[in-house]
Write a structure and sequence with these properties.
Strand content: 15-25%
Structural class: alpha+beta
Largest sheet: 3 strands, antiparallel
Strand order of the largest sheet: 1-2-3
Radius of gyration: 21 Å
């Protein structure tokens, strides 16, 4: 009797992650007998590069930390927000609809970051500044 249900593990392709919200690469190629670890690392790096190239060849909506200038009414701070990402990098920030609670949390985070930046400029971070 199995405690966990069986899982279908298979080799996938781009059709398997086209509409994915998150893509996680958890493992790489198996080390071959006699293969040096540095060679294995290079093979695995090539696999990841291929995946990233394929993902960035199309526009994707991903979360990135970017400098906001007016989005959500917030200026002059770097926040993690949804963006359209392509092979050229971040194309634009997407201002999604936020609940009141989400908006308050986002603006609170921005305020704390502004305060921390001001404290750094004034040399007070760690002395008089508390989050």
């Amino acid at each position: 009797m199995s405690i966990f249900p069986s899982v279908d593990i298979h080799t996938g392709g781009s059709a398997d992650y086209t509409d994915a919200a998150v893509i996680m690469v958890t493992a790489g190629a198996k080390q071959k007998t006699g293969e040096y670890r540095l060679d294995l690392m290079q093979r695995n790096a090539s696999i990841v590069e291929e995946i990233v190239d394929e993902i960035t060849a199309r526009n994707s909506v991903l979360t990135f930390s970017v400098y906001v200038q007016g989005e959500y009414g917030i200026n002059d701070v770097t926040l993690s927000v949804s963006c359209v990402f392509s092979g050229r990098g971040v194309e634009r920030i997407i201002e999604g609809r936020l609940t009141t609670r989400e908006y308050e949390a986002l603006t609170h985070s921005a305020s704390l970051l502004h305060q921390a930046a001001a404290a750094l400029e004034g040399g007070k971070l760690g002395k008089e500044f508390h989050f």
